[in-house]
Design goal:
By secondary structure, this protein is α+β, with helices and mostly antiparallel strands. It is 39% helix and 15% strand. The strands form three sheets. It has a five-stranded antiparallel beta sheet, with helices on one face. Strands 4-5 form a two-stranded antiparallel sheet. Strands 8-9 form a two-stranded antiparallel ribbon. α11 runs parallel beside α14.
Length: 360
């Protein structure tokens, strides 16, 4: 999940001082990594320079916390062979989410002759810090991504309302990219159910009981080596009691029923809503670029939509991907079709069928 915390201080010692050794064998390099910009992510001065603002603003930036679904965090504790693949997929998902926010949510408002206009903006530098535990020492894969309140070469801060409005879509893209990466780079299968439950193949639900992710007291985050935290997790597993494994959904990479159900009761649907719905309906994940390209193929008039006031579409337009149109578009792993190409093919095919129906 993605949560955003407003930063009013440029003190970044909490992040630069955490070596996050719990992921030493699973993560490539240090916990700090640049999504935009170059330099030493260990240096507090370089990291703090990301938090740009104006003389009149009190907000210097945002801490975008991107956390993996609990089953995938637990997988890092249970499956050493899958851990590096999960962390790599997580970082790819973080990058996809930030790319989306920068492309669609980062705008500045400009007043010209009594009118107000939105102008697209960019961040000059973005830095993330990848951690593997929470304050209780439980497995908790997440990133702290720092962005500035003032975009690059701008004299005003970005519209924060737009940033928060696009978070659900960015979160859905993160999770879809994460599922896709886990399925590509590990022997496990990550999926999302119709009810929105994120799961992993052969993972007993009893592990959620010992690593629930909720603590009564929030103390300082411990600093453990990889060996120490693995030993801690091994002790925790002594309390494990089998509960059962949730069955995987049918091997259909896109669930049109779930896509249509997303808009139940909605009247004004923006491009960001379509992106979120398509990403969530991609049961076994999808690349963010494929999700965006498919939505743009189906709704070309929304290709330039961004900011808070995206042009809405009707419920009828949004439900172009109906169960009738997508019926029998199932995908079996044994077919050898690449996941991304499959979704791209589905999007183009659905667009063609939609146009054919409108021409009748």
């Amino acid at each position: 999940m993605i949560h955003v915390f407003v930063r009013r201080s440029s003190d970044v010692e909490y992040l630069t001082g955490d070596r996050a050794d719990e992921l030493a064998d699973a993560r490539r390099g240090a916990p700090g990594w640049w999504l935009r910009g170059t330099g030493d992510a260990h240096s507090s001065d370089d990291v703090a320079a990301v938090l740009q603002t104006t003389a009149r603003a009190t907000v210097v930036g945002y801490d975008v916390v991107v956390a993996a679904p609990r089953p995938l965090s637990i997988l890092i504790a249970l499956d050493a062979q899958a851990a590096s693949g999960v962390v790599a997929a997580h970082r790819a998902g973080v990058l996809a989410a930030i790319d989306y926010l920068e492309d669609r949510a980062l705008v500045v408002r400009q007043r010209v002759e009594g009118g107000e206009y939105l102008r697209r903006a960019n961040w000059s530098r973005v830095v993330g810090f990848t951690h593997g535990i929470n304050r209780s020492g439980e497995p908790h894969l997440h990133d702290h991504v720092l962005v500035g309140a003032r975009p690059d070469h701008e004299s005003t801060v970005a519209d924060s309302r737009s940033l928060f409005a696009h978070l659900p879509a960015a979160d859905a893209l993160y999770r879809a990219t994460l599922r896709f990466g886990v399925n590509q780079h590990t022997a496990r299968t990550a999926w999302r159910s119709f009810a929105g439950v994120e799961g992993v193949s052969d993972l007993d639900e009893g592990y959620r009981a010992i690593w629930g992710g909720h603590a009564d007291e929030r103390g300082e985050k411990p600093s453990w080596t990889r060996e120490e935290v693995v030993a801690r997790w091994s002790r925790d597993q002594r309390r494990f009691e089998p509960y059962g494994v949730i069955r995987e959904p049918p091997r259909r990479f896109f669930d049109p029923h779930q896509f249509a159900a997303t808009f139940e009761g909605a009247t004004r649907i923006a491009r960001r809503d379509l992106v979120r719905a398509f990403a969530d309906a991609s049961t076994f994940g999808a690349e963010a670029s494929v999700v965006g390209a498919t939505i743009d193929e189906l709704h070309p008039h929304l290709r330039t939509a961004r900011g808070l006031d995206e042009r809405p579409v009707s419920l009828t337009e949004a439900r172009r991907l109906t169960p009738e149109v997508a019926r029998d578009r199932s995908y079996e792993r044994s077919s050898g079709i690449d996941d991304g190409r499959y979704l791209e093919r589905v999007g183009v095919s659905l667009l063609r069928e939609s146009r054919n129906r409108s021409d009748r």
